[in-house]
User: Fold this.
Amino acid sequence: MDKGETYVFSPEGAELVLGANDSNLPYLELLLGTELRVRGTSVSSERGGLLFSLFMKALERLALERGALSESEIFMQWQNLTEPEAKGNDERVSICAGGKSIFPKSNEQRRMFRALEKSDVVLVSGPAGTGKTFISIVWALSQVLSGRRAKLLLTRPVVEAGESLGFLPGDLSQKLNPYLRPLYDAMEYVLSPQQIKRLEDNGTIEVAPLAYMRGRSVNNAVMILDEAQNATRQQMMMFLTRIGENSQAIASGDPSQIDLARGASSGLADAIDALSGIDGVSVIRFTDSDAVRSRIVRDIIRAYSNRSDDAE
Assistant:
């Protein structure tokens, strides 16, 4: 049996890593596979080993930089230490908007941050909970609020209920609101609803159905196409060719949630296949291991992806 090891936190680090009333302790024990004992600012592991010390040190450094740690942040730090492809990548990248900063929680998120900085077109594919929409929105707001671009244009295909917008109540904004709610949830992390409304009123934030973008040339803007797996090949081509001077297009979607009519191919999958390798186009492919909402979300995604279609 291993001798065991003790890690001593700073007073602030202990509170941020272990959580209120040591609430993070059971999850840390689950990841490490051993019982932990806390005495003051010291944490002892029965098994010890280099991994324990590295993990505690990495968590403390992260917590002192960002504040109290969530389960997803703890898990991503664990992945960075235990997955071979994650080791040695300590680059600090972030997106800042509205006085708030977000940091990548997985290697693929880090790749997405870099892609947004350098590419005119960013195509993002992956399951729920991987941060596709959230990162896109915060990035776009950082561009608009800093003055680097003048407009944020939000769009998505409306196919879930099989209804046309004309049959839905209200004006165009009210018709689209239920479909765009995830985008507004992300915006409200950075801005208040009142601030968002003011930006909409002055045209800085524009909401448009995908079908209404035909024929336009969008300049000095970040265009975001959400739920892009439900855009057809023709719609995706139309969206990407709206890019004008100093504009950027981001299209993201979950290939496991395609609601197109049987036989229709996903425009996102087609674009990734057709445009990969073109200069100025970046492709980000998230997997279930990148799910950052929580460990249980990752496990749910993995369980469903492992089932055959015959089991549905």
